[in-house]
């Protein structure tokens, strides 16, 4: 719908894979931070005269 | 196609007289041209109101969910596929239904007819491959193929997939149609452009939910947009809320939509929200070879697991 591919991530992490979970979270956070804030889903205030 | 009317009345009358059904769901003429409306016939002497022509685009499968009586339903290709989907999803039992199958040559696009006519349309008469649109001071004849609804023009299942009685000879299926040209065009857009495209597409939306109400798949007792505890999506006409509604609704129809076009037909402002459901329909077709509602014996791809399911998107 016009959302950058790097903003959405899918991964299988078992409850036994704590280190994988940490790695995934780090990767996702870095990738999303690199994209910068997403303004598209921010509700803009109505302009009042 | 018009000869179907007599046949539908015959069959409906016979079924009601023999008490094989309590109710026949079909179409009757509406109060405006091109606006046939669904009708419920319960007595054999009332079957004369039933009609069939190119304005029966509403999906009658929508009127079957959770009913308990024995029902005969008039079904064109897409309706029959939605009936199959209902059977798979336990919304109605096959034994309750007598399906009066109608081989369909496509429904007329009322919006396009109104736009191309020079004045108010008061009559639309179909004869074979020709459609005559007339009103005060004009009468124009067009080829039927030029006035079809966009979804009918690319339809691959015109004949009912399940039926108990067929009102006419099966029609030839369209081959070589390019079903997904519109989806591809959107996929090829750059990110920004695509976002903008949907902004403009959805800008006129009133959140009237006519698309949802006309959709046979949308039978949830409480829709996620009406829920207030928790409130999943804002109820305003803010573009973010409007977009959330349309995309989420489309996802709820993933692997179930038959592209019957009821949503687009019902929209009072003419939004083509079919592009959303169609993208998902295409994904289901390309990833699992799935077309919804072709057989009651096949489970849909989203509730089955196969070891070779595509998983390239999972890291």
The radius of gyration computed from the alpha-carbon positions of chain A, rounded to a whole number of angstroms, is: 16 Å
Order of helices and strands of chain A: H
Main sheet of chain B: which strands, in order across? Answer: 2-1-3-4-8
The mean pLDDT of chain A is 88
Structural class of chain B: alpha/beta
Our count of helices of chain B gives 10
Helical proportion of chain B? 25-40%
Helices, strands, pairings?
The complex is a heterodimer of chains A (49) and B (315).
Chain A lengths: L17 H18 L14
Chain B lengths: L3 H14 L5 E6 L8 E5 L29 E5 L1 H12 L8 E5 L8 H7 L4 E7 L2 E6 L2 E6 L6 H4 L11 E2 L14 H7 L3 H12 L7 H5 L24 H14 L9 H5 L7 H15 L27
Parallel strand pairs in B: 1-3, 3-4, 4-8
Antiparallel strand pairs in B: 1-2, 5-6, 6-7
Task: Describe what you observe in this structure.
- The complex is a heterodimer of chains A (49) and B (315).
- The mean pLDDT of chain A is 88.
- Chain A has one helix and no strands.
- Chain A is mainly α and 49 residues long.
- In chain A, 37% of the residues lie in helices and 0% in strands.
- The termini of chain B are far apart.
- Chain B has helices at 4-17, 77-88, 110-116, 150-153, 181-187, 191-202, 210-214, 239-252, 262-266, 274-288, and strands at residues 23-28, 37-41, 71-75, 97-101, 121-127, 130-135, 138-143, 165-166.
- Chain B is globular, with a radius of gyration of 20 Å.
- In chain B, 35% of the residues are buried.
- The mean pLDDT of chain B is 93.
- In chain B, 30% of the residues lie in helices and 13% in strands.
- In chain B, the strands form two sheets. A five-stranded mixed β-sheet of chain B has the order 2-1-3-4-8. In chain B, strands 5-6-7 form a three-stranded antiparallel β-sheet, with no helix packed on it.
- Chain B has ten helices and eight strands.
- In chain B, a hairpin with an 8-residue loop joins strand 1 (23-28) and strand 2.
- Chain B has three domains: 1-105 and 157-177, no CATH class; 110-147, no CATH class; 178-315, no CATH class.
- Chain B is α/β, with parallel strands linked by helices.
- Chain A binds chain B through residues 1-4, 9-12, 24, 40-43, and chain B through 191-198, 234, 238, 240-241, 243, 247, 313-315.
